[in-house]
Write a structure and sequence with these properties.
Elements lengths: L1 H25 L3 H4 L3 H4 L3 E7 L3 H12 L4 E7 L1 H14 L11 E4 L9 E4 L1 H11 L3
Helix pairs in contact: 4-6
Protein name: Glutaredoxin domain-containing protein
Organism: Powellomyces hirtus
Length: about 130
């Protein structure tokens, strides 16, 4: 009986260890296990605009169709958008000259990612096409 218990305990220790080592060294995404944050974290895109804007609606649809990303969509009414646009022009690096809906940028979702302003819908579509993210 004691020998059976020893074998059972050994199996309970060995099997998870083998599985962990296999997944650590032989998986196709090994960089994620070794602390490569880029491999672990899917891209993040933020789309902000006013709800009646057809370009905002297209950008919202585009970001919603993308696989393996973290989308943030903020939809405002036209009056609130006017105030929000001024704030975005001051706070999103590179967005100072942008004045139409939507505003689209990457990063900033984890509080420590670099924010990169992309532009409006047309620039976002071109950016996504260039990255092959659809």
């Amino acid at each position: 009986m004691a020998r059976s218990m020893q074998r059972l305990l050994a199996a309970l220790v060995i099997l998870p260890t083998v599985y962990f080592l296999y997944s650590y060294f032989l998986s196709t995404n090994a960089g994620a296990h070794r602390g490569n944050k880029a491999a672990m974290t899917p891209p993040c895109y933020t789309v902000e605009g006013f709800s009646a804007c057809p370009y905002f609606q297209r950008a919202k649809k585009l970001v919603g169709s993308m696989a393996e990303i973290r989308p943030i969509v903020k939809e405002l009414d036209r009056e609130a958008w006017q105030d929000r646009k001024v704030i975005l022009q001051k706070t999103v690096p590179g967005a100072q000259g942008h004045s139409t809906s939507p505003f689209v940028w990457s990063g900033g979702c984890e509080g420590h990612e670099t924010v990169a302003f992309i532009g409006g819908y047309s620039e976002f579509q071109a950016y996504v096409d260039s990255k092959g993210q659809l």
